[in-house]
Specification:
This protein has 341 residues and is an alpha/beta fold. It contains 15 helices and ten strands. It has two domains: 166 residues, Periplasmic binding protein-like II (D-Maltodextrin-Binding Protein, domain 2), CATH 3.40.190; 100 residues, D-Maltodextrin-Binding Protein, domain 2, CATH 3.40.190. A five-stranded mixed β-sheet has the order 7-6-8-5-9. It has a three-stranded antiparallel β-sheet with strand order 3-10-4. The protein starts with 18 loop residues before the first helix and ends in a 17-residue tail after the last helix. The N terminus is likely disordered.
């Protein structure tokens, strides 16, 4: 029987995935890959929450801003978290900062300069232009700073406090005398000074602006305030003395986080000043029931908002430092933090 040769034929089957379908599958796969890539980029761009320990005086107006910052969720918006550390006095706050218990306090650049002279590299970022004031009872015979001779003068803060240094310079310029020699200065916390003045234990007080405003509302007379002192000494009334203070090493490692914190605090300050609802949430912190006193505090607080702080203001600060410290007239470099926007 003849052998039949079997021819193997290649069987062609119809294509179950036409070109258009394959292109669709590829596009869908690319879409998935792109979405995954974007999600990764978004996660990589998320900022970690920056934590700040801030030394806070129980009577300080910084409490107003921190309250507004948290109640308005600005801390979450700016990716910051505040841990407040109560300090009893301004001097206690400085000790806490130098000891590393807190990251920031509110103080003045005069103190920062004194620390840099001692190789403690603190830095300053402006907070407010509002100044303290010198007050006496309405019926006091004291009419001008020269009349303080032989009197007991209460002074908020320590011997390096900005208001004390300015008043000393003014008395030296106008009378040729040294204030600390012709008076008996009593350094104490602001609430205690107001109390002792009301009890007749002090003849005059040089107090922080918010406590000075409360005395004014109670009928006490302002002889001079820090703004007038600056002008009388030949300097801009808007030159800020008060600011946030922190170590240079901390600022170097946390520059972006500090900018976020200061942006959040500035936003909180603006809300307090520009929106009555925000003010109503912090007004109880003033511990004042009289609406007139409350309004006076708000007006003075909002009037101190920083409008500008650049080379012109820093040059004026250097000139003021030279006037206040003739023995060491050069302002130490690095006092003012340059990392702010």
């Amino acid at each position: 029987m003849p052998t039949r040769t079997m021819k193997h034929r290649t069987r062609i089957t119809p294509d179950r995935h036409p070109a258009s379908t394959r292109c669709g599958m590829v596009l869908k796969l690319l879409q998935i890959l792109l979405m995954t890539l974007l999600a990764c980029v978004a996660r990589a761009g998320e900022l970690p929450v920056a934590v700040f320990k801030i030394g806070v005086l129980p009577f300080g107006t910084l409490n107003w801003e921190l309250h507004a910052l948290q109640s308005e969720a600005l801390d979450k918006q700016h990716q910051v978290r505040i841990e407040t550390v109560p300090v009893a006095t301004a001097e206690a706050g400085k000790v806490a900062l130098l000891g590393g218990r807190v990251d920031l306090i509110v103080s003045d650049w005069f103190w920062v300069a004194s620390q840099r002279l001692q190789n403690r590299n603190m830095q300053f970022y402006p907070y407010s232009t509002t100044q303290g004031a010198l007050l006496v009872p309405a019926d006091s015979p004291i009419r001008q700073p020269g009349d303080l001779a032989g009197r007991k003068l209460g002074v908020a803060g320590g011997g390096l406090d900005k208001n004390w240094l300015l008043l000393r310079a003014f008395v030296r310029k106008t009378t040729g005398q040294e204030l600390e020699r012709i008076t008996t200065p009593v350094f104490a916390a602001p609430p205690l000074l107001n109390q002792q003045l009301s009890q007749g234990r002090l003849d005059a007080v040089l107090n922080y602006w918010n406590f000075a405003a409360k005395l004014e509302a109670s009928g006490y007379k302002t002889l001079l305030d820090g703004t007038t002192l600056l002008q009388e000494l030949g300097f801009p009334a808007t030159l800020p003395s008060l600011g946030y203070v922190f170590s240079e090493s901390f600022a170097a490692s946390q520059a972006q986080s500090l900018n976020r914190l200061f942006d959040a605090l500035q936003q909180a300050r603006n809300l307090i000043c520009e929106r009555d609802e925000s003010w109503s949430q912090v007004v109880q912190l003033t511990e004042e029931q009289d609406p007139a006193v409350q309004q006076r505090l708000r007006t003075r607080y909002c009037g101190g908002r920083i409008q500008h702080f650049g080379q012109t203001e820093q040059k004026a600060a250097a000139d003021l430092y030279a006037l206040l410290h003739p023995a060491t007239p050069r302002l130490p470099p690095g006092v003012f933090w340059q990392g702010g926007r």
